[in-house]
Predict the structure.
Amino acid sequence: MIGCDCEVCRSADPRDQRLRSSIYVETPECSWVVDTGPDFRTQALRQNIRRLDAVVFTHSHTDHIMGFDDLRRFSYARGSMPVYASAATMRDLERVFEFAFNGLNRFPGYLQPEPHLVTGPFTLGGTVIVPLPVPHGNATVNGYLFTRDGVALAAYLSDASGVPDAIAQQISGVKILIIDALRPKPHPTHLSVAGALAVAARVRPDTTYFTHIAHELPQAAEAGLPSDTYVAYDGLTLSL
Amino acid sequence: MIGCDCEVCRSADPRDQRLRSSIYVETPECSWVVDTGPDFRTQALRQNIRRLDAVVFTHSHTDHIMGFDDLRRFSYARGSMPVYASAATMRDLERVFEFAFNGLNRFPGYLQPEPHLVTGPFTLGGTVIVPLPVPHGNATVNGYLFTRDGVALAAYLSDASGVPDAIAQQISGVKILIIDALRPKPHPTHLSVAGALAVAARVRPDTTYFTHIAHELPQAAEAGLPSDTYVAYDGLTLSL
């Protein structure tokens, strides 16, 4: 955190230096990113992202959308950029990035978003993507379940203060659960470590990864977690 | 640039890796930043910025404002964050960061902007800051002249496709001119290297620094510039 001298902010473990939460998903057919926070350009450069066919949004808070315009590089390569978001999130994207959505773009290199409202499951290539509406404080944000050939591969719940039973049942037994675990101490809009572990106990995934981690949770805390539970870090790659 | 294999993007000179343009100004009385692009948090961490008393905006394009919310760290420390911008830029800030300006912030850690419309010279501590309206394609953006004790110390023109004579005269003889020099090739909204040199020839500063540099202009190009002209790079510190 800016201007902080805590143990995690001064940590020698490079995994303790975190940019904003996001995932990049690569399949045989196509690739997409979930959220474009302010760090999107830095993340795309660091991971050497060469292809991006769509962007999927969880919600419109600044740490998840403010890098949207840097999609222009991929939009230009494709001619447009399919954007998947809930109606509320799309409204915010249209307000914030008015210049991109208003159709008045004059330069060929400008971002050309192609809006797709998420109202239920949708497909990208051979992947079925199921929105998982969960509370994030007073807001409702979309987590997403990714299934291929009828197999529930991964659920991504980056911002959640709780997970309703219907959602926990819907993703029950998923191979990988990636879940908000901000810090040990409770927070009004995010799950704590204990809260995330309690969700994992209900979902019973093969493996759990914590994400959206604050500087109050060191990478080293992983040693104290159950053996199927990990603290995710920037650049972590999972193959399924 | 994302997905680019050009000589500059693959350069071994770390100065060829550039984040979005911004300057941090430290004076005996107070400190401020000009613009908060998406990289603001990364830049503040990298330069170990501990104090920030105000933010001054040139214009509202995404590469200059999308890190605005990360000012909350400094806003919290002060109780609010004075924001200096033209009326047009302030309107865009209010639209994009509606949650910060609408006065409904519920959490103490939220950004509390304190808007100040820039309509002419203003002071921050002992520095007089003079807005310099310049064309940036079809838009007009503010450069800024910083003077102390009647001495014109630095002019910052980060985004300009030209510099009107009145402005060139206004900053004539400034110690340091920091000026847009996107690349060798002309661009509709930015000065080229030749364009920036032509402005410098009219302004006659002691020293000129190029900024807002694209991947078409390597750091090594500095060797071919006049001896009083430099290619700025991320983290460059100037003492006046």
